[in-house]
Structure formats: structure tokens, C-alpha cells
Design brief:
- There is one protein chain.
- Helices cover 22% and strands 19% of the residues.
- By secondary structure, it is α+β, with helices and mostly antiparallel strands.
- It has two domains: 3-245, no CATH class; 299-476, no CATH class.
- A five-stranded antiparallel beta sheet has the order 15-14-16-17-21, with no helix packed on it. Strands 4-3-6-8 form a four-stranded antiparallel beta sheet. A three-stranded mixed beta sheet has the order 5-1-9.
- Strand 16 (323-326) and strand 17 (332-334) form a beta hairpin.
- Residues 1-22 and 171-181 have low confidence and may be disordered.
Length: 476
């Protein structure tokens, strides 16, 4: 524990004693202030937010009051999709993730989370003379100082906001004793932090005044070698940044070995399996993290919630549900009813592709109403209208998915169908229409599709082909 943290604990204790309330202390959860976030005290020091360690939820100011003995435990903050509100953005969180602060801290921030992985993680911030950032600031309520116009605190808030997005996409939930996973996470986060510093400094220089960009959000996605493969610079007013950035993992948890056999990449304790060849998909991402792939809320690294016909979130053990909320991407998907049962969402139905909007249909509307269904809504456009008319799961903004969105459901760790059937039963082992068309001179009427037989992508002709449909909406 660093001297500054020890001093902070002593001061906190003295302050509480002086005011006659020696039993309670306030903890604060920060990205912006995080309200209705779950707070766990890691009393057994295993780095896992367990049900019997739940201490409560944060108030509208991101705070919760707990016994002083809480200072003896690490504090884990769980941001819950559809429940937690980040003051920086409108609406509830689209994805669930966790942050942590080691014992002795009363503020939990993206920076305390980085420090948990590696005490030297923030050294690039301290070393940059232009930023003037200190650990005392980054592990305190820098949001309050930013609200008062403190320019250094504003920089901290911008970086913290951007780091939080990185945490959501990384192995941020793994706080346990798995040294290999934690080391990989530290490297992953360090690379992101270095790139974020570079981008934020450039944006400050362009603006000329950091106060002008106080709502800045920077999103960076890197490959396994640290190369930038996606970069978004936007503001907190653009809540779609989460959906632009969010992408599911592949679901692959097995690896090839030197002798050509396939094994689980990690054993039950989280240790790397011997003889596994390096650089494989199953070695990285959420689905490689044993803390996040329990399969309780979705196979491997997927995370889903069942939604009732009226739009309520159901327990995972529910046996009847009409939609599924993807807690990673923030998208909500329709669920098909059993094939042959009849009705609007019968899984056996197929549809022709039809869209009369010349701005998006690739130069041809397709064929109207010529699919194989009993409901009389046998093309994609008619089906969208019909589902919105019944307000499936309480919503009327259902639409056709893009190819990227449809691909986000593919679990490449399974086939026939290549999707988690525990949440998406009655999935056809065949093609599903997307909304995207593609220009192929020899075949000018191609629409991109995804096969849930094996997860492969393909193109079908909108003039004569038929395929299944699964509608999507933006989520909660």
C-alpha cells in the first residue's frame, strides 16, 4: 500500500471520529457518477463479486455509505446493463462490466481498476509533464473538481471516461489470482492507455482549451499486437458510441496443440493448457476469461438477458421469453417460436427480401410478399411492420439487422446452429437475411446473409431467394 493511501485512511478515520460518526464512510463510484450500480466488498480477497458480498447499490450521486471496516476489503463496482446510470450519458448502461479499488480507497474509478492490475499501470500519465496528473487526483473524486472547472481534473475525466470504455471491452472482470490472465489484461490495458493519452493530447491541442472538449469520448480498439484497428472520437451526447464499439467475442475456447489435437485453451483453474500454440483466438477476449464465461448468462463470453412479452427482464432460469437483450452490444433480439406452431414468429417461416427505399436498397427493391409463411407478412419489410404493430416486448422500433449486428450472435464454438440455443431456441440451421446489399457486377441483386449452420457469411439474390429473419432493435 502506498504512503498516500495510508495517510488517506488515517485522515478519514480522524475525520469520522471528529464528527461523532465513527462507523460509516462514504464510497463513490465514478466514470461519470454511477448511480444504481452494485457494490461488493471482496471480504475473502478472491477478486470476485459474489452474491453474499453485495453491500448495496449507489445513490444518484454514485455514493453508498458503508461501515468503516469496509476499508479492509477491496471494493468492486458492478455496472449493470439496463440498470446502472452513468451521469455522463443519457439512459441506462448498455453493457455490464466491473471496476475495482484496492483496500483503503473510498473512490472506485477506471484508474483504481488499472492500479489493481499493476501498480505501475498509470506511470505514462504521471510521466507526461503536459498532463500534470497525479495518483492523488486519479484515485479521488476528480469529477467534482472537473465540475468546478479544474482543467487538470477535466483531462482526468476525459481519460477516465475513455478508459472505462476500454475496460468494458477488455478482461476487466478478472480480478482473481489467475496471474496469466491478469498479466495479459495489464498489457492490453497499458497499450490502450498509451494510445488514449496520445489522442486526447492531440484533441486538446486542436481545441486550444480543454474546457471546450470536456464531453470528449475516445474509443480505441487494438489487435493483439497493439495495432489500432478502430478509433472513434465523439462526445457524450452520442450514446450510439457504445453500439459502434461493442462487439461480441467469437465463443471459441479451444486451441490447437503442437500434436494437432484440440484442447481447452485454459484449465479449470485458469492456467494455460500445456503445449497450446500461441496466437490463437481462444487465448484472448472475454471468452478466455473463466470469471466471465460461466455459461450462466450465455455461452463463453456472451452475456444475455431474457425479456418477457411486456419488456421485463426475466431470471435466467425462465422457461418462457419473447426477446433477448445482449448485455455486451446493447442490442435486443426477437426470439422465434417453435417451427410449425404457427403465428407471426414461427421459426419455420422464410421471407423474400424487400425494401422499397432507393437510398438503401442497392438499386432494387427485391420481391414483395413471396416467402413461405402463414401470417401473410412474407417479405422482410412486411414482417418488420407486423412485428412493430404487435409491439413485441413492448417496443415498436424493430428493424432488420445489419450484417455486423447479425454476426454478433454467431458462436463459432458450436455449429448446427452456431448460436447459444439456451437463449435463442428454434434457430434455423440456415441463412438469415441482413439489411446490407452488395454491388457485384455479374450479380447486381445480392443481399448479405449469415448462415447459422456454421456462422459463415454469404450472399443471396433478392430476386428469387428466401431466408429466415431475426429482427433487432437498439436495446434498453
Amino acid at each position: 500500500m502506498q504512503i498516500s493511501k495510508i495517510v488517506a485512511m488515517i485522515i478519514t478515520s480522524l475525520t469520522l471520529g471528529a464528527c461523532g460518526d465513527a462507523e460509516r464512510v462514504s464510497f463513490t463510484a465514478i466514470d461519470g457518477y454511477l448511480s444504481n450500480a452494485e457494490v461488493y466488498l471482496d471480504t475473502n480477497q478472491n477478486g470476485v463479486a459474489e452474491a453474499d458480498e453485495l453491500a448495496g447499490t449507489t445513490d444518484a450521486n454514485g455514493q453508498i455509505e458503508l461501515a468503516v471496516s469496509a476499508l479492509n476489503s477491496a471494493v468492486i463496482i458492478r455496472i449493470v446493463a439496463g440498470q446502472t446510470v452513468d451521469r455522463d450519458y443519457s439512459g441506462t448502461a448498455l453493457r455490464s462490466y466491473e471496476m475495482i479499488a484496492d483496500a483503503g480507497n473510498t473512490v472506485v474509478t477506471p484508474f483504481t481498476t488499472l492500479l489493481h492490475f499493476d501498480s505501475a499501470m498509470l506511470s505514462p500519465l504521471y510521466a507526461d509533464a503536459d498532463l500534470q496528473l497525479t495518483e492523488d487526483l486519479l484515485t479521488s473524486d476528480y469529477v467534482a473538481k472537473a465540475d468546478q472547472g479544474d482543467e487538470i481534473a477535466i483531462v482526468a475525466h476525459i481519460l477516465g471516461r475513455s478508459v472505462a470504455l476500454t475496460l468494458q471491452e477488455s478482461l476487466a472482470g478478472n480480478y482473481g489470482s489467475d496471474a496469466t490472465a491478469n498479466n495479459n489484461t495489464a498489457i492490453h490495458l497499458q497499450r490502450h492507455l498509451t494510445k488514449l493519452i496520445e489522442i486526447v493530447k492531440d484533441q486538446i491541442a486542436l481545441a486550444g482549451d480543454v474546457k471546450k472538449i470536456s464531453d470528449l469520448v475516445v474509443v480505441v480498439k487494438l489487435d493483439n499486437q497493439g495495432k489500432v484497428i478502430q478509433q472513434i472520437i465523439t462526445s457524450t451526447s452520442d450514446n450510439n458510441v457504445f453500439r459502434k464499439y461493442a462487439i461480441n467475442d467469437t465463443g471459441i475456447t479451444q486451441c490447437d496443440t503442437g500434436d494437432g489435437s484440440k484442447v481447452d485453451c485454459y484449465d479449470e483453474s485458469g492456467e494455460l493448457t500445456p503445449n497450446v500454440l500461441p496466437g490463437q483466438d481462444g487465448l484472448v477476449g472475454r471468452d478466455s476469461n473463466s470469471k466471465l464465461n460461466s455459461n450462466a448468462d450465455g455461452s463463453a463470453g456472451f452475456s444475455f438477458s431474457k425479456i418477457s412479452a411486456s419488456g421485463e427482464v426475466l431470471p435466467v432460469e425462465a422457461t418462457q421469453w419473447d426477446c433477448v437483450q445482449d448485455n455486451i452490444t446493447g442490442l435486443m433480439w426477437e426470439v422465434k417460436t417453435p417451427p410449425g406452431q404457427g403465428g407471426l414468429r414461427d421459426a419455420a417461416h422464410t421471407y423474400t427480401w424487400y425494401n422499397d427505399d432507393e437510398n438503401v436498397n442497392g438499386g432494387g427493391a427485391g420481391v414483395e410478399g413471396a416467402g413461405d409463411c402463414e401470417s401473410g407478412n412474407c417479405d422482410t419489410s412486411q414482417y418488420v411492420v407486423a412485428v412493430n404493430q404487435v409491439a413485441l416486448c413492448g417496443h415498436t422500433d424493430w428493424r432488420m439487422p445489419t450484417l455486423v449486428e447479425l454476426n454478433s450472435l454467431v458462436d463459432f464454438g458450436r455449429i448446427k446452429p452456431a448460436i447459444d440455443v439456451a437463449f435463442f431456441p428454434n434457430t434455423k440451421k440456415g441463412y438469415y437475411w441482413g439489411s446490407n446489399t452488395i454491388l457485384v457486377l455479374s450479380h447486381p441483386h445480392i443481399v448479405l446473409v449469415v448462415s447459422f449452420n456454421d456462422g459463415s457469411g454469404w450472399g443471396l439474390n433478392k430476386l428469387w431467394d428466401r431466408a429466415a429473419v431475426r429482427l433487432v432493435r437498439a436495446g434498453q
